[in-house]
Design goal:
rod-shaped, BirA Bifunctional Protein, domain 2, binds 3,4-dihydroxyphenylalanine, alpha+beta
């Protein structure tokens, strides 16, 4: 015969001692589950004689309800304890020192390029881009660089691998552009003067590298064309640029020179403002009045327009401005160097 008093005592004691919800769940199965003594007894009531059935049934059901209530209360209590423990464990210590986040920043060449663009934009120039892989036609032919000019031969120019046939046609023969001047006729073929643009971008030369030479570097082309653009305008624009870029500290001077695509041509010198270059005259750009042969290649009527063009190396401007004495530092990814900007 089942001893309900004993079950009550044992179960209540077990429940009061339970320390975790899992323990409590096990007790629930043990005392109230389908196979528990109590459940089995309740299921067997139907076999008892009626008067005994009523009495035993009442006692057993009371015990079941009591146990359910006790276990429910205990579960609630354990949940609260658990929550309090979690809150304690996961507390955020706002006074603990944070983890340092490494910030990336712009490369000095990007900083300088953006500064150049801002200055020219303030003078009404548009920023234009052209392809890094260019046809021989735009890189050389349209710029009046004769077919036998040394700049075209393998020493200075990388050429793409192409069939003999393709190499003969300057419209198909391809090279990584050697200068941003290649964009001049490309742009003029699609736009009518007046306009003023600068074209920043990467160029490639088949040269040995040293402190002042890289096989690839950044330049920007300037081109201003209209009815009455003069060499004096070029000087004014470059002087304005230098004043802004070097904060009024440098001087600009022109020295007569030669380029196939300008007539007359000049070399532009600026006076160093910092580091080892301070006080020294440094060649900063090639420039001149656009050769009418270039306008002809662009499809403009001869003599209708005048314009100036110049090409300046962004790397050099950066070196000049920050007193960097080796161009290779700009491409070396050495953080000790890059973090200074
Ligand atoms: N293309 C020349 C170079 O890369 C620079 C240059 C010289 C550009 C004279 C010009 C120019 O537009 O008129 O060395």
């Amino acid at each position: 015969m089942i001893n309900l008093v004993k079950i009550e005592k044992a179960s209540l004691q077990d429940v009061s001692r339970a320390k975790t919800l899992t323990e409590l769940e096990n007790l629930q199965t043990k005392y109230l589950g389908r196979k528990s003594e109590l459940s089995l007894f309740l299921r067997s009531l139907k076999d008892l004689p009626p008067e005994e059935r009523a009495k035993s049934g009442q006692i057993a059901n009371e015990l079941r309800r009591k146990l359910e209530t006790e276990m429910g209360n205990k579960a609630q209590q354990l949940k609260e304890v658990e929550l309090a423990r979690k809150i304690e464990q996961e507390k955020i210590d706002v006074t603990a020192p944070g983890k340092r986040v490494e910030h990336g920043h712009l490369h000095p060449l990007t900083i300088v390029r953006r500064e150049i663009e801002d200055i020219f934009r303030s003078m009404g120039f548009d920023i234009v881009e052209g392809p890094e892989v260019e046809t021989e036609w735009y890189n050389f032919d349209t710029l009046n660089v004769p077919a036998d000019h040394p700049a075209r031969d393998m020493q200075d120019t990388f050429w793409l691998k192409q069939s003999e046939e393709s190499q003969k046609d300057p419209h198909i023969h391809l090279l990584p552009r050697t200068h941003t001047s290649a964009v001049q006729v490309r742009y003029m073929g699609k736009h009518q003067p007046p306009f003023r643009i600068i074209v920043p971008g990467r160029v490639f030369r088949n040269e040995a590298t040293d402190a002042t030479h890289e096989m690839q570097f950044y330049t920007f082309e300037g081109l201003m064309v209209g009815k009455d653009v003069s060499l004096a305008n070029l000087k004014g624009v470059l002087q304005f640029f230098a004043n802004k870029f070097f904060k009024d500290e440098t001087e600009v001077r022109f020295v007569a020179s030669y380029f196939p695509y300008t007539e007359p041509s000049v070399e532009v010198f600026m006076k160093g403002v910092s580091g080892k270059l301070k006080g020294r005259w440094i060649e900063m750009a090639g420039a001149g009045m656009v050769n009418q042969k270039v306008f002809k290649a662009a499809g403009y009527a001869l003599g209708e327009y005048q314009g100036f063009a110049f090409g300046m190396t962004i790397d050099r401007l950066a070196m000049f401005k920050y007193g960097i004495d080796d161009i290779r530092l700009l491409y070396g990814s050495d953080l000790r160097f890059l973090k200074q900007f």
